[in-house]
Amino acid sequence: MQVPQQLIESVRRGEPGAFEELVRSTHRPVYSLVYRIVGNAEDAADVTQDVYLRVWRGLRGFRGDANFSTWLYRVAANAALTYVKRRARGGVPTEPSELPDLPASDGTEERADAELLEQALATLPDSQRAVVVLKDVYGWTCDEIGKQMGTTEGAVKVRLFRARQRLADELASAGVVVPLKKRKKSS
Amino acid sequence: MRCDQIRPYLPGFVGGDLRPDTGDVVAAHVATCVSCTAESASLERVRTGLAVVAAREVEPPAGLLEGILERTSEHTHRRVLAPVLPFAVDDVVRLVSDHKDTIASAAGVAVVAAGAAYALWRAVRGARSAQPATS
Fold first, then answer.
1. B68 interfaces chain A, CB cutoff of 8 Å
2. What is the ipTM of this complex?
3. Looking at the 3D structure of chain A, how many domains does it have?
């Protein structure tokens, strides 16, 4: 996601149409990140709207020397994690996850795996999904994730490892890889 | 070490997320174990698949863009009040929204406390009026 610096400056100056252009050019990747953390299309749409309210409010204080995309993803992840936390406390009813509407696979093995994994992500528990999405999909460090989620790096790793294991199980049940838990011990 | 001791570390091993000393132990085992090598390969495939996921976009629901623009437009209208208020209206709205459970609990406690105070006041007043007049 590349956002021209000129557009950001236009938004900060309050030029007509600039914020709309910013939303148009960024809402898809932002929605994708939010969806992958909250695991539900309807909730993801609500949270994405909230993200842009935060962006609108926060842009005046945004320092031009920071990377806007990084900042935007951070705002989005923070909003999604806050929502998931509130949902876990029972403040928000949990809707059953549905499969995301994804572009058709071009037939390569990696893309077929990605398609399966994207669907499997929606079936993970909230805390595991958030961690594996931020680490393995968006490349955050365990330390960053821990700070963002208000937990320790160790707790993040435990969730991450369980999530990877479950995703491997999902690939195995689709016949893509050898089932992990059914193999005999070798030594 | 046995496979059942190594296996819990494999998801961390494939991502390079283990401490170096632990990683070395796991690597030494995996190098000599066909089963754990296969398991590592499966987990590695998960990691490479997830890296591809990053480049894909999930199709947003119809009306999302319009919804965002509508909400930010409402926000703009609220800002009209900003010059006459000593606080940002949206900050208050967000604060209330984020802490509505706490606010509801506090309001409940306040209502109960007010009710109790009123009952006490009535009781004291009743007791005073029931006392015989002394001359």
1. yes
2. 0.74
3. 2
